[in-house]
Amino acid sequence: MSVDLDKCFEVVMELARNGGKIIRERIYSKKTISTKSDRVDLVTETDQEVEKMLISNLRAEFPDHKFIGEESTAEGIPCEFTDAPTWIIDPVDGTMNFVHGYPNVCTSIAFTVNKVAEIAIIYNPVLEQMFTARRGQGAKLNGKPIHVSGEKDLQQALLILECGTTHEEEKMKNNFKNQQTLTPIVHGTRSNGSAAINMAMVAMGAADVYFEFGIHAWDYGAGDLLVREAGGVCIDPSGGPLDIMARRMLCAATMELAQEIVPKISQIYPPRD
Ligand code: IPD
């Protein structure tokens, strides 16, 4: 099947902007909130509506393409990653932020062909930050090229850590352990409450390294291509190659920085998607 990547990019950019308009209009209003796997794993009507809008329009334009969507998966549609052209979608990454009116929210979309990421979009419509990447063509913020910081030294690095969307004991203990080990070493730590925005911060050189366990393909699919196209690395937190279905991700400005932090990380292996 031949894929017109320019057309895919053009279509998805317009849809992401349309979805962003809905998110921007509603972020400071009252939402209908439901919980999924945990009392802090949230979904709103906006997550569902934006995902449905994106998938139905992409399907109308590209009937042969497949989809992996956060909310479709939550509704029971199997999460299957194949060689087929596939859109991996998180309609609102940072749902907890969206619920509270904290402006770190984005739509994250990756497009893969033969399991290789070709297009990445991470769009924060509240702060009007449109991060894009095409394989082999670099990474951009609002149309201008962006690059990772180039930092190699963990002591000088700004590290992003997240607690995730579960209070599951093993995961919380592991988060605290990593926080305790790494905070005294690094320059500083941050949490943006959105995996895709965290990765965009590494891509634009505003942060140097970020890892998280328990996230999903829709959280890091787009960020993976964005960070690599910005000159950074995206690997498994054990040091091996990234696996998009493994729910484990580490991205860094340089491989030197990634290799310095990997042996210091306490690892967990969540069930695969
Ligand atoms: C969550 C956010 C959060 C990360 C969680 C994700 P959601 O995504 O990206 O920062 O820590 O692991 O599940 O639920 O807001 O789409």
TrEMBL record:
Keyword flag DNA-binding: no
Binding site for Mg(2+) 2: D90, D93
Broad class of enzyme this protein falls into: hydrolase
Keywords per UniProt: Hydrolase, Magnesium, Metal-binding
Entry cofactors: Mg(2+)
Family named by the database record: Belongs to the inositol monophosphatase superfamily.
Protein name per Swiss-Prot or TrEMBL: Inositol-1-monophosphatase
Native organism: Thrips palmi (Melon thrips)
Name of the gene this protein is made from: LOC117640703
